[in-house]
Amino acid sequence: MARQQQAASSMLAVALIVGAFASIPTAVESIGVCYGVLGNNLPSRSDVVQLYRSRGINGMRIYFPDRQALDALRGSGIGLILDTGNDAPAQLASSASSAASWVQTNVRPYYPAVNIKYIAVGNEVQGGATQSILPAMRNLNAALAAAGLGAIKASTSVRFDAVANSFPPSSGVFAQGYMADVARYLAATGAPLLANVYPYFAYRGNPRDISLGYATFRPGTTVRDGGNGLTYTNLFDAMVDAVVAALEKAGAGGVRVVVSESGWPSGGGFAASVENARSYNQGLIDHVGRGTPKRPGALETFIFSMFNENQKDGDPTERNFGLFYPNKQPVYPIRF
């Protein structure tokens, strides 16, 4: 997983207007949790699937075709985002036969016993590699259809700085031209755009102008978007609706957004505490059943991540996004 800090600089001029805010927790069956494996002390794949089921977690994302995890998921009913891995898009884009081989190896043996919903063609792909995303999706969709697996939707998972001018949300527009092409293709196939949305990084980048409460679903802050007339009571909604605005400007306003990663670290850096992580993640679970001001209705969302992973590199916070310790005990109380 190649997540980096997200450039939310255009959101950081948030004007904070104190106001009333009330919320009624709403359950969402489509809440999922990302399952990373960059640790040397993690439970077995089968134990992990059992933990998902025992906690009522109905969605999972894995970051490569992990055969042990796929085998453990058989018959579980858990809805899956299956990533190709970031080394695969160039090969998938190179030829139809490469895509067909990938499907026969990584999808056909498992579906429908494994409830594969989406295939993410790359996660937060950057630079020149972005040119492989669209041809890879085209080849992969053709291969899925040829194998009788057309119900599985190919997409790609983008980091939030794929959107520019994200404050106010109505100003959101894709930062690079390739994303407009991707968006229009998703509109044609009926697939959602997978977006990684992290209010944590936006808050960490500008705590002067963004309140901690607004970033962590705590009550007391409202921000009005003069462009669309909508009022926002949390930063997550504002960020998601900036993605929606970018889709609309690309001529792909009908494309759903699936939040493929969102979370808050419990240690390792600024504002990374157990209480802030609990407030954000529980708030997220309770909130997404209602959707956003721009798009009411359940918003399919995946929390990052299931476990603290001790072999992740980069910023120390990267090793502290887990809901659970490797011994399967919760880092903090959480209900699904």
Automatic annotation (TrEMBL):
InterPro entries: GH, Glyco_hydro_17, Glyco_hydro_17_plant. Keywords: Glycosidase, Hydrolase, Signal. The keyword Signal applies. GO terms for molecular function: glucan endo-1,3-beta-D-glucosidase activity. Residues 1-22 form the signal peptide. GO terms for biological process: carbohydrate metabolic process. PANTHER family: GLUCAN ENDO-1,3-BETA-GLUCOSIDASE BG1-RELATED-RELATED (PTHR32227). Belongs to the glycosyl hydrolase 17 family. This is Uncharacterized protein. It comes from Panicum miliaceum. The lineage of its organism: Eukaryota, Viridiplantae, Streptophyta, Embryophyta, Tracheophyta.
